[in-house]
Design goal:
This protein has nine helices and five strands. The protein is globular and about 55 Å long. The model has no long low-confidence stretch (mean pLDDT 94).
Length: 230
Amino acid sequence: MSTAARVLEALGEVYDPELDEPITDLRFVTSCDVSPDGDVDVRLRLPTPQCAPNFAFLMVSDARTAIVRVPGVRTVQVVLEDHYTGREINDAVSSDGGFEEAFPGETTGQVDALRSLFHRKALVARQWRIYERLVAAGERPGEVASWLLAELPAGDRDVQRCDELRRALGIDVRPESPAFVRPDGSPVAGDLDRWRRAGRLINTSLETNGGMCRSLLQNRHGLAPEEVHA
């Protein structure tokens, strides 16, 4: 695999923190250029110039971190284009600074707390999707709620993403641990109805916000519908 292909693969592991979707699927990557010597230049775009600075910073910073780890990469430049705080974010990220360096005196520890919040919401939504698919396929609701991780379908993208989210939140990922848990790691089997309602609500919110972002991106950049809904 070429270095350019590896860079694009790495960008596919960078998620919009609010939507829990890869920035490549959302078409937030405008361009990705890799020189023969391994110098990488990536340009990112967001649905509107007013997207929240903390969300924008996380995506730019995470993109740079992901690319730096790719074998064969020598230098990395990730630029957020046409955003009202783009200069501050780009300057901080290029110098390996944090959100506090981009906006000094305006926040303390906000980004880490925000990331954790969205990880928790994403875990509930992703688990809910898995659960509902299993029930729709004929599994008994009460029994599914008591499944272990080892019993979930291998290769399922939602299952894989839940594993990543659990690790990020410090939740047990051993095969013998409960498959469906709350964000604190406790099993959901004891309060299934409430958990299902919360999962449905969060999933609907993610899908609604995702659709809005795709529509804004499509209209802002004159994209064809299939380019943002692939």
